[in-house]
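TICKET: design request
STATUS: open
ATTACHED STRUCTURE:
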């Protein structure tokens, strides 16, 4: 396969649900504790059950050079990868570049891949590293990243669920303002639905450190939402 950037984009474009790729954050990922301290937190989609991974056989075929298998990997994971990168970097174009580069690296490294049963963590580790590289590059250039602001029109602002839309925008803004390590842990746990063992494989951090990062991020976000709700 000619793993060019254009080819990766084309592969992702076939069958990648736009709504999933566009969904940056949802109010429910913070849990029911947005207004009541100590209330239970709702987990992401994967915890407590099977992750939405591909069969090992698909990864094995891609490892052997099967173009169709690699295309299936890209189509399956691209929306989630784009969502994660978009929340980490705060810019859609930067997120797309990070995801494209991550898949190129995955394609190049597949012949040496040995972590069977842990492909999702391996993929997100490559993507998380690419996001860190891009953030560091921007800092060296002295560029300040603009937090992601979802587009909305006047009609949407006047809709009956205006409060829900406000909360959603505040969550997105607050997540974008979290320190990078807290934001990464929060997104992996609450948005991507990973457990701490899988997060450890992605980040290299110990479970105790990851639990503390998730808790600190959640506390910051809940405090911010309480401010919005009491305004």
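STATUS: resolved
RESOLUTION: sequence designed for all positions
ATTACHED SEQUENCE:
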């Amino acid at each position: 396969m000619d793993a060019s950037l254009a080819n990766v984009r084309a592969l992702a474009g076939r069958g990648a649900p736009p709504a999933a790729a566009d969904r940056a954050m949802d109010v429910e990922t913070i849990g029911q504790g947005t207004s009541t301290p100590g209330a239970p937190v709702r987990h992401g989609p994967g915890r407590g059950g099977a992750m939405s991974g591909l069969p090992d056989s698909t990864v094995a075929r891609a490892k052997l050079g099967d173009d169709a298998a690699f295309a299936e990997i890209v189509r399956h994971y691209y929306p989630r990868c784009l969502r994660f990168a978009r929340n980490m970097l705060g810019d859609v174009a930067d997120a797309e570049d990070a995801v494209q580069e991550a898949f190129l690296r995955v394609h190049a490294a597949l012949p040496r891949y040995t972590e069977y049963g842990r492909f999702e963590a391996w993929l997100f580790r490559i993507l998380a590293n690419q996001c860190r590289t891009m953030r560091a590059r921007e800092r060296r250039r002295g560029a300040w990243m603009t937090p992601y602001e979802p587009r909305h029109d006047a009609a949407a602002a006047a809709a009956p669920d205006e409060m829900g839309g406000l909360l959603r925008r505040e969550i997105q803004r607050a997540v974008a303002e979290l320190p990078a390590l807290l934001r990464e842990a929060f997104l992996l746990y609450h948005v991507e639905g990973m457990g701490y063992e899988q997060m450890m494989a992605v980040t290299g951090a110990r479970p105790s450190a990851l639990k503390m990062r998730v808790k600190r991020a959640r506390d910051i976000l809940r405090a911010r939402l309480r401010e919005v709700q009491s305004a």
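CLOSING REMARK: The two ends are 55 Å apart (CA to CA). The domain at 5-24+39-149+159-230 is CATH 1.10.1740.10 (Rna Polymerase Sigma Factor; Chain: A).
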